Amino acid sequence: MNLYTKLQQRAANNQPVRVGLIGAGKFGSMYLAQIPRTPGVHLVGIADLSPDAARVNLTRVGWKPASVKAKSAEEALKTGATWITEDWKALVSHPQIDIIVECTGNPIAAVDHILEAFAHGKHVVNVTVEADAFCGPLLARKAAAAGVVYSLAFGDQPALICDLVDWARTCGFPVVAAGRGHKWLPHFTESTPDTVWANYGLTPEQAARGGLNPKMFNSFLDGSKPSIESTAVANATGLTVPSNGLLYPPASVEDIPYVTRPRSEGGVLERKGMVEVISSLEADGRKIPYDIRMGVWVTVEAETDYIKNCFEEYNAHTDPSGRYFTLYKRWHLIGLEVGVSVASVALRGEPTGVATCWNADVVATAKRDLKAGEMLDGEGGYTVWGKLLPAETSLRIGGLPLGLAHNVKLVRAVKKGQSLSWADVAMDETSRAFLLRREMEAQYGALQLKVA
Q1: Which CATH class for the 3-155+336-348 domain?
Q2: What is the Cα–Cα distance from 353 to 158, expressed in whole angstroms?
Q3: Which of 71, 109, 149, 340 could bond to 123 as cystine, CB 3.0-4.6 Å?
Q4: pTM over cut 0.70
Q5: C-alpha triplet 122, 124, 127: angle, nearest 5°
Q6: Are strands 324-329 and 296-301 parallel, antiparallel or unpaired?
Q7: Domain range list for the chain
Q8: What does the pLDDT read at residue 450?
Q9: What's the pLDDT tens digit per position in 388-401?
């Protein structure tokens, strides 16, 4: 509760938290918009494949040209300005940078960036949750071995959900379910970048104004991002996942404690202690009033009559039994909130969410009938979407992680709706991302299959 005070102290002592940002797209730009308004933080450098595009985004969010005039990290450190470069390795390896914020959205590149940051003793706030979804448990182990902190990014929904789960458990409540909201209808699994804006609820003009990437936003819509984020939450909190993918029960905020109960008590859960995503649309497409589409929630249980009575006495909205209560945050502000992670990692040495186990995985699943020889284009594209599955199920079927289904050639046909396996594709087996994933399977796999 005192991060801001600690940041003020760092500013007063001229000892700012020194940050390097990799990727200045939409998410990165939102964080950039807040940095000038945050004491005790110095953005030393930005690495981006297109420095000119990064400068355009800096101007878009209100930075003055003089703020990014530094020609090197050394000049940035001396003057308090910011250095823009294409050379991410130079940024990651600089000895005076404390934290790397990985914000590319490219899971394969992100693994390279994160591992290199660990090698140079840098903490990492990982915005690219797609990477965490397929190798986060091992990234967390490698961070610990390197003596650094690896963290999910506050503002993105997984870290906010982890925060609610931590609140619940710290208060002594058992967590029955936790998750986020989403605009969902089953046919959205077929959505492509060509159809995304109408389904998402934006005009092409609004999308262009915001510099929004249709493929990225389609990954939200088609179910890939909800699966990715639910995976990150399950692996960070130890919650379990549905046996055959997210159910997306429709519910208003008021109805969340009704539906996030076990099936035996009138809800949708296979068991207590699960992740789930609440839809903001009824099955027939009608919008639900007071929805949780952009928010996060946790449902807890009153284990005694006394606690149940307290819920009643303080007008907590519960299910009809009075035992299940949902706390929620109806909005998340994405990159505008990343500063909480940066401060928590730098000043407390604490992540805002980090994998502690391997409970869940996201498996690439065919959007349509796919032919041998076709190239997969990853989350949000034209070929596959991501299905949330228990890790042991993914291991058993040899599931192809969605985060590695980028620019990969199919070697055999796959039917629409079928989850892909390693045997379906010709992988580049030299990438660090692939090798890390296979290492994680080797480390965790025997245990997972034994448990299953």
Answers
A1: alpha beta
A2: 8
A3: 149
A4: yes
A5: 155
A6: antiparallel
A7: 3-155+336-348, 158-184+223-331, 360-451
A8: 47
A9: 999 999 999 999 99
- Per DSSP, helices labelled H in 355-431 are 391-397
pLDDT category at 452 given cuts 50, 70, 90 is very low
Q: Is there a contact between 335 and 26 (Cβ–Cβ < 8 Å)?
A: yes
Q: Which residues contact 205 (CB under 8 A, 6 or more apart)?
A: none
- Give the pLDDT score at 278: 98
- pLDDT number for residue 208: 84
Break the chain down into helix, strand, coil percent, rounded to 5.
45, 20, 35
Distance CA 245, CA 187 (A): 15
pLDDT on residue 204: 86
- Whose structure tokens read 């208003």? 252
* pLDDT score at 1: 65
- CA 381 – CA 378 distance, rounded (Å): 6
CA pair distance 284, 211, nearest whole angstrom: 31
Q: What is the DSSP string of 117-183?
A: HHHTT-EEEE--HHHHHHHHHHHHHHHHHHT--EEEPBTBHHHHHHHHHHHHHHHTPPEEEEEEEE-
104 near 92, Cβ under 8 Å? Answer: no
In the sheet with 406-410, reading across from the earlier edge strand, the strands are 375-377, 406-410, 425-426
pLDDT digits (tens, 9 = 90+) for 78-124: 999 999 999 999 999 999 999 999 999 999 999 999 999 999 999 99
Domain 360-451 carries which CATH code?
Answer: 3.90.1210.10
DSSP 347: I
**Separation CA 93–CA 328 (nearest Å):** 40
For residue 9, is pLDDT > 50?
A: yes
SS3 402: helix
- Whole-angstrom Cα Rg for the chain: 22
- CA 157, 160, 161, 167: dihedral to nearest 10 degrees? 180
Whole-angstrom distance, CA of residue 305 vs CA of residue 60 = 55
Residues β-bridged to residue 325: 300, 318
